[in-house]
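Quarterly update from the structural biology core.
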Amino acid sequence: PLLLGEKMLLAGPIKEYRDSFELPKMPAHTEFEYFATHVTFGHEYLTDEDIADYMAGDGTIGADSGLVVINGQPVNDVSDAKEIISTSKSLDVAFHFLQAKTSVSYSRDLVLGFFDSVKGFVENRQSIVAHAFWSVLREIFDEVYKHSAKFRNGAPELRVYFAFQGNPPSHEPLYQDTVSDFENSMNNLAMFRSTHVNILGASQLLRLYSATVNKVEVTINFPRQTPLPRISGIDQAYIGAISGIELIKMLETDAGSLRKSAFFDNVRDFSSGTRLMKRCFPHWKATRKVFSPS
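Predicted structure, tokenized:
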């Protein structure tokens, strides 16, 4: 079919994403749900995970994907959550929920419906949590709050994303009121340290996708350094020391979370619960070598 406007803007990136991750053939709306999940929180947290495990599936009320992050690790199973919680002295938790629509028109009613579903989840409303997708997340939610004494940076963070293929009417007061009313209602529950709503149209999704495929550039102060001898295939190399503040600049995303790609590209981020690490354990045990993330 002929694509015009905003849908043309995302057609190439969606196809590139589908081919890159070798996704099976799926309906256009499902493909867009996967794409939106990838560019919002999937790229950051699900590098070694099967993203399908975090998708709600057709027929789920109110959301298309969801994720709980406990101490930087993605969790979609209550037993994994219990293990992380029991072995951690402190907890830093974030809840992510996304709904994606292929429409190019912004619908306040759809956004309000999505917000109400998230609110229903938090309130343990049976019409929401009875569904299998929400039910598992609710078990993890309850397990997290059972151990609130371990919260390191305060209560968990709530991040909510609504993605569509048009342009958000950000200049309209009613649009701003819809977002701020939901954020305030969640924060007033005193269960979250902060609530962040992201209404993402085609341009915003394109920018997020570009950030997943392009090199990350960060400017830092690096005064204490010595050039290394020429290395084949590398233009410039230095050895030196930087302050902790400058290091954080390199490891922190614009959203304030950990830039995990820095670990995957340079040193292996030791997240013992990931599929990749579980595949590596037998080899490590057989060779009796000790591996360190440092």
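DSSP finds eleven helices and seven strands in the chain.
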